[in-house]
Amino acid sequence: MKEITQRQKEILNFISDYQEENSYPPTVREIGDHFGVSIRAVQDHITALQKKGFITQTQKKSRSIKVLIDERKKDSNMFLDKVPVIGTIAAGKPLLCEENYEGYVTLTEPFIRPGKNYFALHVRGESMKNAGILEGDLAIIEQADAAIDGQIVVAVIDDAITLKRYFKEATRIRLQPENEAFHPIYCQEVRIVGVLSNLVRTY
Q1: What amino acid positions are annotated as catalytic residues?
Q2: CATH number (domain holding residue 145)
Q3: pLDDT tens digits for range 77-103
């Protein structure tokens, strides 16, 4: 992960403090007012912090900054770990083996928690858009081999992986998309490899 400048760290810590105090993040203008700098200067720092993986922000939406890495807690033993990102699936290889990794993403609480194992997947397609899961999102998955009704899971069917909502019916398993343009997947058996824990979205 790239290092941030002292001013970027100050802005990041201000966002974290503001969020903690008000339960919502500051606007770009409020950040500029606090530091006595222009909105353009703040936007440049925000863009840099996004590129370096410290925050995310929804474009054209006020108060949408989300801190991914809280620099204030680096010295307080806050849990932080590297999560493998699953890329192209190598034929015949188990899903969670190094041959399938395209890299790693460094995450901290609350995206991941101690004592759990995680992996990440890039979301492809629009089958889960009504659940707020969009193409290009990075889905953070907690490893699990079972699920309860209604959970969004990563399932393996015939060596293909899919992200769907899980339901156990009387005689079959239903993997339900969250988009009326897509049909459910029905199967007698399915291998669950994880349950959706969080999403990371960048712009």
Answers
A1: 127, 164
A2: 2.10.109.10
A3: 566 778 888 875 555 556 666 667 888
